[in-house]
Every structure is written in C-alpha cells, then in structure tokens.
Fold these 4 entries.
Entry 1:
Amino acid sequence: MLRHHTYLSTTPDGVEYKHEHHEESTMRPATISALSNEDQISDAVLSVTPTGDFNPPLAPFRERLSWALYDFANTVFSMNIATLYFAAWLVADLGHSNTLYATVNGIASALVVLSIPVFGAISDATQRRKPWVVGFTLIACVSTVAMAILGQTGLPLIGEGVTVPGTRQLLSPGIALFGVLAAFTIANYAYQGAQPFYNAMMPELVPVDHRGRLSGMGAALGYVGSITGVLLTFPFFTGAVPILGTIPDRVIGFLRSTVPFTTHGGRVSTFVPTAFLFLLFSLPLFLFCRDHNALYGKRRVAWREAFRDVRQTLDEAKRYPGTMRFILTSFLYQDAMGTIIANMALYAIFAMGFVKGSEATLFVILTVPAVIGAYGIGKLVDRFGPKRTLSWVLVSWIVLLFSMIVAPSRTVFWIVGACIGLIYGGVSTAERPLLLSLVPDVEAGRFFSLMVLSSRAAAVVGPFVWALAVDGLTPLVGTGFAYRAGVMTVAVGMALALWMLRRVPDNFATTVRAQ
C-alpha cells in the first residue's frame, strides 16, 4: 500500500512540507520528527516562528467563522444549563440545597479530571481534534434532552412560569431526581470535555499574530450566543421575552406544541430548546472545519502509553518555563469564575432580591458588554501580549467582586454586573494565546487538556467551598450575608491567581523582538 511521506524543506517563504510516495513502513509516535518524515499533513507552505511554533497561513474565512461559531453554540449551553436555569430550578423551584448542586458539579469535574488528559494524549498522537468535539457535543445535547424528559415525568411541576402545577407520575420522584442529576452530570462533563479539543484546533487556523483576534472573535460570538440562547428559550419558561415583554398566547401555544417537553412552562421547559440550539449552531464546525494536520492511515491506539503520557505531560511541562505555573494559575481563576457564574442567578434571587425569573433579563443585559469586551480584549492581546492583558483582567475581577459584595442596591449591582460582563470574555481570550506562547503548537492538545484538568480539579473544590459558606452561614447570619460570604471566597481565589501569574514568562515580548 502506498502512502505519502512528509519532510521539511526550507524555502524563501519559510518551511514547506514535501510529500513523496513510498512503501508503507512502521509508524512512529506523533512527535515533531514523525510529522516531518512520515505522515501526511498538508500541501500548504507552513512557516515556523523563531521559537519553533507552527505559523500557518490564514484558513478560509468560512472555516475560521465556523470555528468561532462553536463558541456561540457552547455558551448557549453554559448560560442556560450551567448558569441560569438548572441551578435555580433545582434550588429555588424544587427546594434542594446548594450542596446538592455543588455535588453534581463536582462529580462532572472529577470525571473530566480522570479522563480528558488521556483523550488529549490520544488526540495529539493522531492530531485529530474535531471528532472529539463532535462526539462530546452530541453527548451533551442528548443528555440535556434526557434532563427535560425525566424532570417532567417524575418531579413536581412547580416554580416560576409553570402553567399547570402538578406531577406527571410516570416515574417515582427519587428515580426521576437521580436520573436528572445523572443526566446533568453527563451533559456538563461532555460540554467541558469538548473544550480542550476545540481550543487545540485554533493554532491550525491562523498565524501566531492573529490568534488573539480569532480567540476574541470566538469569545465575542460566545456572548452573542448567551444572549441569543436566553432570548430564544425564555418564552418556553414564562411566555415572555426579556425586555420585550409578553408574547401572544397563540404564538406561545404554537411553540410549546411544536417543541416536545415544553408544554407546562417553567425552567425545566428550557432544556430541550437549549439542546436544539447547541446542536444547530455547532453544525458549521461539524461541516466546514477540519483537522489540517491529521495523521492518516490505520494507527494503533496505545492505551497504556496514553495513560503514561499524562504523567509525561506533567514532566514535560517543566521543560517549558512557566507552563506549570500558568496551569496552576488557571486552576485558581477558572474555578473562581466558574463558581461565581454558576451561582450568579441564585445570588441575584437570594442576595439582591430579584423576583424569580427576572434574573434572566439581568443576564441578557449584562452579556451585551461582554460581546464588546471580548473582541476589544483580543485586540489588547495582539498589541500588549496575553500575559499583560490577563493580568489587567484579573485585577478588574478582584475590584468588581469586592464591589459586588458591598453593593447597597440592585441599581449598583446592575452597574457592577455590566462591568463584569465587559471583562468576562477577557480570560478565555487571553489564556489560549498565553498557553500557546509557552508550549509547542504540535503538543497544544495535551497542554490544553492539562489546563482543563487543573481548572476542573479546582472546580471539584470551589462549589463545595461556596455551598459550605452559603448553607453553613444562612442559619446564623441570614441569606443575604451568607451569599456575600460566598462571593468573598471567589475574590480570594482571584487574588491568588493574580499573584501566581506574576512569575509566568512573558514570551510575547521575546517573540516581538525576534521578529
């Protein structure tokens, strides 16, 4: 059987991959030397930066836009399920504790800790990321639909927006609750699991000096997705649209009769529409993106080697100065952000006195600044570098979290929230280029997986710290003070992250001087 062999050839334009036909030979691991000798990657001229990273030409605009649209798709899920509706449904509507919600979140994060680095090592061995993104996305969508089915066939139909309170007793409440929590855990795990593979696709699409812009475009579209997701699902919740008001009964009746498991209204009726939107806006990536450097041919998946590679990735991180420190930094700030965002709806209801359901309007309005901020921060990344930009973002987070704690009224809370929205996308916009500046592109998948491992390991702890602060202090000092104490734990995490970031190398300045 004939196959293409590839090797590097220096040209006036950079480094070109040459292909020749040879008889098939023994396959080697997907190291840089293997890529340069034996595996079909691309026919395009691919330059290399002075630091050794691949510096590909711009991919077609359709492919770049399709990649960025996945940020739009997955933030529909993160806003509706992980942030807005599920926690409020479980705690405010069904009356369960913050600790129960923290438990299922922690289990999902623990599953990520155990499995994603292994998947990342396998992905880097074949340089194939897209299949993992597709697979995890489909699992998340199916599990979200299962949450809606189980929630409406065994649990009480109560809470804000429910038109016909009661219970459809097809399942016992205990079995239904267990099923809902299991489905949420799987959906949350799959949503998180797609992220490192999605991030690792970026360096194949743009040159190094365009990464900040593409990352910023993805983050900006992500927050457009957050707004769109709330606007399109909220009618299934209350029969109205945030800001615009009530929708005619005839229109609501048509929507709820068309989309299954939305008839009764309430937060549980938003789950199926969310799954549909997540899948719909993921389709451009499914159809138009590809793995540019995929290694073709039948390849043995070395499972034992993959497990060992997790430990090897930790060892190799020491070879790239600042990488391990940055991953530990992400452990702190990603956990802090995840904790506050996951509990923001509950904070608005119980600490700031928002009427149940009105928190959705708050999230829509506060997300608008995030669209502007994410793309603007992407420009700052390209001009000043990802480390300096991320430092500014973390300082802003600390100031705003303390402002939230002392906010005396809902008006002040709105202002603080708008400022948080402005900087929220800055973390993901800056951290992806920062990690890519620390490690070789060909190994990006493993290190993105390691970064997710770090942040998800913290996410096992963070929600429990929040739950212990809130549930433990509520009987002693009241709900409002207890929730503010929860925000204080988040602010401390951000401050520690800023301190850790100080000693991460700023390779942006080195790269600029070398060019």
Entry 2:
Amino acid sequence: MSKILDKLADQHEERIINVLYRLEEDVVKEVTRATGGKLVSQRLAIQLRPQIRNLIETTFLDEADIIINDEYNKIAKEVLDTFGEMPIPKKFKSLTEVDLRTLNALKTQSFSGFEDVAERFLKVINDEVYQSTIAGRPFEDMVSNIRSHINGVYKRSNTAEINELVDFINENKFDSAKKAQVEDAVRKLHTQYASDRAGNNLRRYASQIAHDSVMQFHGQFTIAKAKEAGLTHFTYTGTLVRDSREFCVSMLNKTLTEEQIREMWINRSWQGKSTGDPFIVRGGYRCRHTWIPTDPAWGEETVDELPTEEELPPPPPVRGVVSDVSIGFLLNKGLKTRPSTAKVKAYDEDFNSQLTEQQKVIVEKFPKPTTVRDTKSGYYVPSTGQLNAELNAKDGNVKSYVIAHEYGHHIDYIAGGKGEFWSFRSKKFNDAIKEDLENLKGKYVGVNYVIDESEYKKMFDKLAFKEERDIYSKFDANKIIATDKNTILKGDGYGEVSDIFDALAKGKFRRNYKMWGHTISYWRKKDSVPTEIFANLFAIRNDKKAYAIAKSFIPNTVKVFEEFLDTAERVER
C-alpha cells in the first residue's frame, strides 16, 4: 500500500515539476513578446495580468485537474483493496454511492489547494512585473526574477553547468539507485550557485501540494470508510527515510484507538507538525505514513449516542405568518469549541435576512445540514452535509448572500436525490439555461456558444465600475507613484449575479473583467454551471434589484427555478 502511494506521490510531483518548466518558458515568452525585450511600461504591466493568469490556468491548473480526475481513482482503489482484505462485512468493501460523492468532494478539495497556490504566485509574478517598471529594473533582471518565482534555484539559466545540474536532478530525483548523486548535485546547486537554499517559489509549494494531496486524499477516504465500517483502531504504517521525523520513527507500526490518536495530537508537539486532522496530515508536511484501520474485535457493532438537549434545535421564533428558521444551532457541531449564544443569534439573523418567506418554508421542510461552519471560504460538502459560509460576508463593499448561496446548494442536493443535484438532473432546467445562453448575442464555435464581447461590456456596466486606486511610495507616504483600477460592485448581491453570467461565459467574465465568478477549469466540471446558477438564484431571491437583473438575461431559467420553489414549498416531508 505505502509503496504504491509513494510511487503515485512521486509521479504527480514529477509531472507538476515538468509543467512548471513549461509555464516558466511560456510566461517569459509572453512577457518578451509583449514588450519586445525592453523595460515594461506601467500600462503594459497591467495589461499583461490576464495573459499571465491564462497561462497559469492552462498549464499548471489544467495539469493538476488532469492528475486529480485521472489518477486519484487509483488511490481510492488501493483503499478498497485494503478493506477487501479485512474480516468485515462485504458491504464495507465495495464502492457505494456515498463513497462516490465523498470522492468527488475530496477531489474538489484537493484541486482547491492547487488553485490557492496558483492565485498566490499569480500575484507574486504580477507584482514582479509591475514593480520592475517602478524601480526601472533591467529587463534581463526582471526575467531572471520571474524564473526564480516559478522554479527557484532550479530555474533555467545562461550558465551551462547550472542547467546540467538541474537536468540531472530532475531526471533522477525519483530514482532511488541515484539518490546519493542527486543529493550531491542538489548540494552543489545550492552552495555554489544560489544565495539561499529554498526560497518561496511556485515549484516548492506546488510540488509539496502534489505530494501531500495524494497522502491526504488517501487519509480522508480511509477514515471515511473506517467510520462507515465502525472501525476505531488504527495502525501507523509506511516507510522510513533518512530524514523521517522523530514522531514517525517512534510511532511506526503502533496501534492506537481513535481517541488515543486525537488526544496525542492535541497534547504532543514535534518538528514539522502541521495543523489539521491527525488522520489526514499525519506526521506533517511531506509525510509518507498513513493510519490504516484495524480492530482487535472484528464484527462488533457500534451504537451512535442520542443527541443531548443542547444539540437539539431551539423552537423557531414567531415572525408574522412564517417563522424564522434556525441553523445557528448547527455551528461547529462535531467540534469541541461551541459558538456563543450571541454568535448563534447573529448567524440566524443574517441567514433569515437573506430569505423570502417561501424559502423559509422550504428550509423547514427539507433536512438540515449536518454541521455549519463560519469560514471565510464558502462551500458545501454534499458527501458529509457540511455547510461553510461566512457571517455578514461582503463582496468588496457590498453584501454577499453567501449563507443563502451555500444553503441553496444543500437544498439542490437534497432535492436531487441519488447522489446528484436537482439542477444537474433536471433536463428542463438545463434546457432553459441553454436557451437563455443562445438568446445572448454570440455564435457557435464548434460545440461551444461564444458570447459576444458587447454582452460582456453591457453586463459589466450594469453590475460594476472601475475605480482608480493610488499606489504610494514605500519611502514617501505622500508620494503617488502609480495608479491602478479596482472593480467595485454597484449593489448588494451583484457578486452572485456576476457569478451567474460567469457560468454562461465559462469563467471569462471573471478572468477578463476581474469580476466575481470561478476559474475556467472549475466551469469544466459537468455539474458546475447548473448548480452554481441554482445556488445564486436561491441566494438573491430576496433581493429585488439583483434578482431583476438576473431575470433580465436568464428569464427561462428563472421561470423553471421558481417552479421548483413552488413545488418544494408544497412537498410533504
């Protein structure tokens, strides 16, 4: 098991490293083409940003997307093979519909890690280009810095010996027979040709994510299956290497209960320990070990405890004809830290302010999420029923209806049944989206309908405007050295409307106009367009202005959505 995981982790890391060299060359080529190899102007530096973003998305993120969707099923198979050898009922040895939903959610979560590091270094590279104009940095120096931001000391160089060392390391890094020679080459590269050992570069973080994502994906799916099978004992397995952590060396092949593992995780510290769940992050960054479920008493069943009185939802307060709904009691359910009474009240008030009376009736008729978390990043996990949404969220300076948005995903998923979203399964809803898309000015290019640029501009003018922002000198707080343009939304809920249009534009509204939406790679997922449009409509149903704008360009979709709400309100549960 561990050898297979190690092999996959190494292969994925190698693929990411290779694609980063392609990205390095593509970015340098684009900057050179746009500038003619001369010092970049401030205006051109700003104009280069969408091109650099596109290069990162179409090389680095596309490769990550392929790795996750094509390769991570092998990790799931290894987990199932392990469970297949255990003396447990057959129903826990096969892949269920719940497992499939869990795997899809874990794949999405894994991809978000790559998206985060891509967004971080997009800003780093953009800042390098822009700051070069301010500082009057020579073009060759700027290019060298860009290469460093992407690949660190492993960047392409004008020195032949450096390139030879880099090529040798890249070609033999994962060959155990040449481990000593590789280490010597790395040492020479760092000591003779680099001022620092590692540095903050895209290669360093991306390769770490490529490795850790494999191990963490395995850990998450393993613990999910273990809980499903009622297994509560785990053995720490894996291989030791030269620089294995002391924790991993001391724990190898030891068997503990889940309670012991979690207690140890809270009370012990060690070098390299990372934050998170002990079954997922294990020893820490780049750890090659896993907790494999076992049980000294196979076949014993476990009985879930009944919820305490504190965990039960409070009776909803009376509010006119329709009562307010409560989900605040679900905040941090399953965690040791519980929210204050004031926090629960504030969360419920924010949620109810985002709903129509009809939506409140629907919320009460459908099962609630299993737990709710107040987090900066909003998302819904169908496999576990966990809803993450920020209290009093903002899109810049306007209101974001993120709690209602994520709850829309929850309603959509529960209504769909069979492990799929209603919006994805409904032919009528998807036909309406297609009809509304084709009603926008544009044309088909192959099988894709491409929206005309005039529609983008018209939608941008409805929703937002550009505001000039002064950039001040670091050395003189009163001296303006440049100006930049920032996107400002004109009204509450307009970020959700922007996301709807971005769904039709498959990410180009967000990318080209710096509007609210998702990445181009995100919109390639088969259910992303209908599910996000549904959730956004659910989010802005109580905002007349935002909803009216949405209705103006997707009237057929809105009609089917409202039919869904009417049906959901009447359903008996």
Entry 3:
Amino acid sequence: MPAALLILSLAVHLAWNYKRLNVLRAELVSLVTAVVVFGSQEFFITAGNGVGSSVPFSTIPFSLGLAESTYGLLFLLLMSWPSLILLPLGAFRRLSGLHGPFLILTIFCGLVPTVIGVYMVSPITVFWMASFPLAITFGTVMRANSRRIVKSFAILMLIFTIVMGFSFVLSSPEAPTLYLSLSQSFVQYFPNGYLQSTVPLSQEGNLIALLDHAIPILPPNSTFVVPQQFYGLALMSQNPNQVRIVNAGQIGVAQNTIAPIPVNVNVNPITSLESMHGSFTVWWTQPNNWYGVSEFPSGFHTWLAGEGFSIFLIQ
C-alpha cells in the first residue's frame, strides 16, 4: 500500500506539472523505476513463489462503509490533530514536491472507497501513512508563515507532540496515560502502552525465566501446549527431553471494539485447552484479565509456580 500510494503520488505530481517536464526528469526516472520494480515483484517474483502482495476486495453496504470511514477519520483526528490543525496556517498551500499529493491521496484512499461500498483494507491502515507528509507540516508552516503568533502556535504543537510521544514510549499497558486511554476504542490497531510485547515488559523476564527452568525438566516426550503469545519465547529455551512444543493458537477472548468492521483475528478461549489431557501449558499464575481471561478451566492444576506465571498440568 505505501509503495502503490507513492507511485500514484509521483504520477499525479508529474501530470500536474507536465509543462515543467524538463525540470522533472528526476521524478520521471523515479516513477518509471518504481513501476518496473513494483511490477516485477507482482508479476514475476510472485509467479515464482517469491514475495508478493495482494489486496482483498469486497463490497459492503453503504451504511457500513460510512460508519467504517467515520471510524477511520476519528482515528486520524485522535492521532494527528496537532499536525492537521497546522494545515490551514499555510502548510496545505505550500507542501512541496510529493508531500501534497501523497497526503491528499492517502486521505482520499482512506475515506472514499469504504464510503462508496468498496472495502479493501481498513481506513486506519491507510491513515497510518499520513504521518509521512504530516511530518513535513511543521517546517512548512515555519517557512511559509512569518507571523510570530503562528510560529509560536506551531512550536507549541511540536512540543505537545514530543511530550505525547515520550509519554507513549515510557507508558505501560498496566498504567496507560490519560490520553492513551482514549485509544481503547482503537485497541485492534493501537496499544495503550508501549512497554510490552505479548506481555508487559516488566513481566517478560519472569516468563522467560520460568520457561528456561521448566522446559528442561518436563517429562521426556511430553507435550507442552503453548499459547501463541508465548510460543516464540518457548522455542528459545533448551529442550533436552525432546518435549513436543505445540502452538495452541492465540488464547483469549475477542476484544470489544466500536469498529464497524472488526479485524479478523482468530482467538481461541482458554477452555479449548481442556481437551489436551496430560499436556502442560503456561499462563499467568492468577487470571488477571489479560487477553480477556478472567478464570481458569477446572482441569488446570499448577505443576510449577514461577513469579507471576506458572506451568499447568491439564487433567
């Protein structure tokens, strides 16, 4: 998607400035090169089972498309309003080069297809790319507008953006900042804390320590059914007893969201592990509602307790 939008932006930029073609030779070379590389990937490399891409395409009712576009627009406003409000202050008129077409096409491709009932990807997925041209707006406003009040306002927005960025970098999902807590409506796309992988960063060391200790002492040839969230960490541990480590898929409860078209994520309830009698699994020692799990099945029995996490025998 970013490559396609950039190529389209180059084409629009060249078409708009066709009278200055002698000046735009570099852009023309870039466009031709990009089209050749993109086309080669799609039609030749993909045909040879290489890396390729495809865009899902479906039609949706008008009301659903309008709701999805509105949802995406709310996301764009929540995440980018400090840059967006600078556009009327001269940035929109003087976005140089490809930044103007790129921004316009990004917003167009994020809103219009779903409004007319064509669904390819979520508008939010498209709007992530608006960060590239919007990052140019600060310098553009500073250059295009000489009024002190405007420059002061732009600097204030820059400071606010930096503060919010640092607050996100330092935030934990266990204690999100007030502003980031607003992103709960977009939980499928935006975590409410940066210091996490599949578990809070403060707890990851405890989980790794438990896996490193438990897997080497599990009974030989036993089965360790690991939720997908912890599967990669489990594969990193020594396995001298040839324990069979099985990916159980993502365990949890589908999260509530106001998204009109939820992201299709296959989530298995923790009760799906009950059928694996005689196997072992791993989870938090006490259900804490992470991934929506608030209680254990009756067949879970603690086999080895760690700090925050435990190995359970399924009976």
Entry 4:
Amino acid sequence: MDETSKAPALLWTPTRAGKTPLDDYRRHVNRRYYQNLRTTRDLHRWSVEQAQDFWVDLYDYLDLKPRLPKGTNRAYDDTVPMSSNPPFFPGLRMNYAENALFANPDLDAVALVGIREGMDLANEDGEQVTWREYREKVRLTASALQRSGVRQGDRVAALVATSIWAMVLFHASAAIGAIFTSISPELGLEGCVARLQQVTPRILFADSDTVYKGKTIETQAKVQQILDRLKPQPQTYIVPVASKPTSFPHIDDLLAKANPSDPLAFAPTSFNDPLAICYSSGTTGAPKCIVHRHGMIMNLKKISAIHNSTTLADIILQYSSTSWVVFYVMCGYTACGAKTILYNGSPMYPDAKELLRMVEKYKVTYFGTSPRYLLEVEMSKTVPKREFDLSSLRIVYTTGATLSPQQYHWFYSVAFPPHVHLCNTAGGTDTATSLVAADPCGPIHAGEMQVFALGMDVDVADPNTGKSILASGEAGEMIVRKPFPSMPCFFWGDMGNKKYKESYFERFADIDVWAQHDWLSCNPKTGGLVMHGRSDGVLSASLASEV
C-alpha cells in the first residue's frame, strides 16, 4: 500500500462534536452498561461484541412499538447458525406501519411533498400532505384493500414511480399484513413480467404514465401485456399521472370500497413476517425475489435516527426509483417524523441542477444521491454553492457506487459548503441497510468511507481462509459474522432456501458467515474504509440507471 493511500487528505471534521444523536447513544450505553466508550468505533466494537445487549437495548431506545416483554435479554438464539437465519425477537408481534406513521406528533406538519418532472419549481410547491392527511390516506386505502379481498400474506404490487401514492400503498399494505412489492414503471415489459410472475400479486396498481427525461408515455398497453402473462390475473387499478385512464378502473374506484368507519388498525404481524419483496438485478438469470421483514424498520431507523441524526426538523430529499431498495430506506426517514420530498422524474431533466433547485426551494437538510449524479454535476461545470442557497444542507448521502478521492476533493474544495457532511455508504438490496455508514462524530478523508454501522459485525476476510485481515490494510472479502435484523426472510419460491444459502453463505466452506461479495479494505492509519468492486465478477446493481 503506497504512502498516499495510507495518509489521504483530511477534508472534514465534525461540526457538532459531542452533540449528535450518535454521541447521545454512546453516552447512553456508557451509563447503562458501565462502559467508557469514547468514539464511534469503540461503540461499534461494543455493539458487535455484546450483540444481544445491543439489539435488545436499541429496540427500546428507538421507541419501537410495542415495548419488548419485561426481562427480554436476548434478541436471537445465537446457538443457531447464521445461515439458518435465526429469527429476531421470536414471538414479538409488531407492525412496520404502526412504527412509521406516528413519529410526528404535529398532525398539521407536512409529511410528504410530491413533485413531478416538469413542475415549475419557481412558482409551484408540489402536492403537500400533512401527517393527518397521510394517515387518513393510509387508513382508507387499507380499508379498501381489505374490502377488496386482500388478506395478510397476499402480495400487493405497484408499478408506480416514487410518489405520495407509492408511500401510501406501501404503508397501507404493511398495515394489513400484506406483502408489498414495487417496480419502477419505466422498467421494460420482460423485466416486469419476470418479477410479477414469480410473486403472483393479488392486486396490481400502475401509474397511467411514465414521466422521464421530458417524455410522458402512457402505460396502459404495457399493463395489459403484463396482465396477459400473469396467472391468475390480479385486480388492477390505475393511478392517474397525466392521461385519463380508460380501460382499467381508477384508484378512486378502489377507495370507494373503503368503509369510512374502519379504524387505522394494524395486523398482528411478527417482527419476522414478510413485509416487502425487492428484486436482484437479474444479471445472471431470473431476478431473485428478496423478501424483507417488518423488523427491518429497526435497522432503517437506526441509520436515520442515530447515524444520520434525523429529527422532526429534517427535510429529506432522497432520489430513488421504486425498483431500488433505497425507496424503502427513504421510507425509514418518515419513522423519524421528518418531511420527505418525493420526486417522480429524471434527476437530469431539464439539466443536472434540478435536484439542487429542490434542495434550495424546500430547504433540504438531507440530500441522498449517487456518485454518478455528483459526477454529472461536476461535468456540467456547475458550482452548487455559488448558484444555490445550500445553507440548510447538513448531509449529502451517497450510495450505489464508490466516491473517488477526486470527487471528495471537488465536493469540498469547489462545490459544496465546507460544513456539509459528505457520506459515502455501502449496503444493498440484500441487507436492506447500510453495512458501512455515516459517523457525524468522526473525520472524513478523501476516498474513504467512515465506519461500520452499529450492530453489523462486518469484517474483511482473507479470500482463501476466511480469517480476518481487517487490521492489515489489505483488500479482502467483505463479510458479516453475526446475524442482523434486516437479513431477508427468504427468497420467494426458493424451496428449502437453496438459493438463499448459495447467495450468501457458501463463499467459505469452513465458516458460517454472510458474504457480501464486495472487495473491501481498511486503512490502518485512518480507520477509513475503501471499496474495490465486486469479488465475484458479477456487475453490482448500481446507480448507472438511477444517476
């Protein structure tokens, strides 16, 4: 390893040292467990060495509902092999939606802002939905789904873009215990069919139009082609975007089935019951249908509330399509009571500045994007801090690919205000959370990610022996050595969990660990982490198409 990589440039130091939610949690652990943890890395080490204490404590610290039974001191059975996917908090009845819809006590505060490509940001504010209105939409939709015959465990499919309706459909499905799955409407016919044929939805929602890069394309013909290849055919409703639906019922026809007196109630799902189905890229065959559990909210809220310091005062702009797991990560910020901006369209239309216009207009505090998007901004010769008021911006969160050292330098020396926390993270569709996360208490060095996420027993393994080489600075296989509560429940249709185990647990013959199939190293001098691409030769699902 050359000297440059050992001592990369220091570009950012904490602006709120000692005053972040991560500091608060570290002090909480010190008090409760009689520790003397001084840094985030100390806290991480404790969280994986004392995993049972950590997950039990975190559940209550995040104020998840219901409270754990008195005397709970184990989160999972650690005598069960990780590859057998030991359930977390067995017997606990909890529902994702109940934990996501009541985080903001101010019912008149804005929860969601819907923006569509082509909107005049200078003169239009978008569709704004308060927390009161949001819960009411979820209540009516949940009632209508149930009165349309949708039951716990049925699949609710949504061929819809990132929008208020996408959020409502997801949370209404979760409330009744149905399993939600979303696909971005610009995905081609064969991609849609390959996914929906496997999960056989009971009901399907589809945007009337795809809006992207200045074009508006009706989807009804594609929806009919999809239905022609689905057996059995699901009930189908169109969500209006631009054109008026004709041959299919409108979503208002579904809502007409709701009983106005039905309460917003939550199915008694378990922590480990299926919540949502995501899909692999399908690069090496049919897409894998990755089923995530209600309990994944624990890791989503851990990242948003503790690592990313999200509060009721935050305004979130996370660019993502609904085909990507980041859509669900974005939903996790509502569990902190933050306002969320939902954008249906291309981040590059009419130019690379459109998302920055939103940051300025809505006083965004958290901007989630990709290294590719930042590269597009750089190549357009845009200098964001000169052209836009970015004073509200607290953190820029990037994922899907690695930020180059040059991009870090551009970000801080040219493009963004020096107070902004630039975070490059790593996780994936499989984990439904970050393995490498933000540390608002620690420095940022050029080209390096900051810390392993709390509770995630991530290591760098020798590719032949599986032994830890983390301290050596050499690159190796990125693995997780202990279970975590957002491991997929299973793959849909995977009899005996054969593909599940092949995907994550057969990298090493002699040790039972989760293999992420990414190549990672840790700089011994800074503790920073560097991704070096895939370890298995398979193209990672990146933001090339997301920008």
